[in-house]
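Forwarding these from the shared drive since the link keeps breaking.
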Amino acid sequence: MWNGIFKVLVIFMVFISFVQSNDKTFKNCNSTLTFDDGPHPETTPILLEQLKEKNVKNAIFFLIGDRIAQYPELVKKIQSYQYDIGYHSMHHTNQAKMTANEIHQDIQEFKNNLNQALESNYDLKYARPPFGGMTQKSVKLFKELETTGKLKQQTLNDEFNTQLIARQVRETYQANGLQTLLWNVDFKDWEQRIDMNHAREQFVPNLKQIWLFHEMPSYKGTIFNNQITEDLPQFLNFLCEQY
């Protein structure tokens, strides 16, 4: 009899532990979660609910201008959840190959689309150039920072951006009042599942890390193996345990 009671108690404690581990929410979290390439009806609404459930405060959705025009109701939904919206270009073009004037025109068109979608003038603060706005030379440097483990602990300031981002991109963003944000960790989740072992290896305590995710099931006819809505909850649980 006592063995039976003991087994029930063990099962009950395991269940309580499981519920508590999944009921954790963010407190004093230094990390910022960023989502590129949206909005998209298959991902954006689900991601917003997942972030809200865990009380995530620091999240930025870096949107594509032509998607804003296509899904204005999703843009309004992001704003209603009180998350920031960032500039990620009109058509996901490599701006390292564009002129300053072309980039400026792209920003203005993006702002117009965004303001029309929200039916108000949005205070756009953040920008992330497609492909990081990097030159061929700086791409090699960036990959070296990734492979050596230096990127995960890098402070993403103006000095860092100067090393990597093409000059006309940086200067045009600055002239338009935009703060450029790259990232510390990229899961490359448009083509593979989020690896939690990789997340544990990349996490640096007490550092304001920027994590890069993508919400891109498809784009311009290309279908990607993007499972972000399935994989994000386990990452949020992991991150909650760190704070």
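-- next protein --
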Amino acid sequence: MSFSRIAAIVAQMLIAASAPAAATIYQISYSGTFWFGSYHLAPNDPMQSLAGKPFEIAWRIDDSKGYFVSKTSTFVYLRGGADFETSSPISAVVTIPGIVTFDVPGLDFAFAWRHDSPPGVPDDYVSVAASDYSSERTGDDLGDPVTREKFIAANFFLEDDPGGKQEEIPQYGTLLDTVELGAPLARPIASTDYLIASITSYERIFHHLEDRYEDLHFIDGYAHVGTLRFERISAVPEPASWVMMIGGFALVGSAMRRRKPDSRLVRR
């Protein structure tokens, strides 16, 4: 069999194998106002209230990363990050207009899950979380040993429990302007759903000899009402798929270049 023929067969196999592999990207966006919370952005700034201030969170989910603990029609659990010794499938961006915007890479800990109960049982829920933590100690016991800590997180929990939480949460309310999200978090959103959205970002130094913390900045807030939107952004071929497809097309080109011109003459 000629090289051209072999190359063509291999190229067809590579292109066919690479075609179905795709990463689906989703975005979950929340906007609302803080029910309670506080912040300061510099060591000497006074603590201020976040209550009543608007904020937004946008989570981005890549279902080709991390791994599925479960993926059934009623229970989906996707997780990842360094805590699970795998890549992270989720990141987030938090925006508090006029105050601060910060990213949550979710490299340490991230998960998304959805649970659907049987019809008539009010125990469906969706939850997404992304967080990062770092800690570094400097100095020695004879000097001034300190530990610098950083933590950021953006989470939400959504449950269709129309009765159980209203007594605990005075500002329980209605979710508006929602759409349905396809897998891995496929679930219709009801107006009776109960929501907790929370954000945290702090950086602090612990002085070991003085046994005290010094806050460099601190942001912490919670909300129970607002607007939640689920969107499927795109299905993007994974990097390995691109490599296989490019390799397949390269082989096709190589085979075409090596094909000898037809030496037969056409007699008239």
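The longest helix spans residues 239-258. Residues 1-21+238-259 form one domain.

- D.
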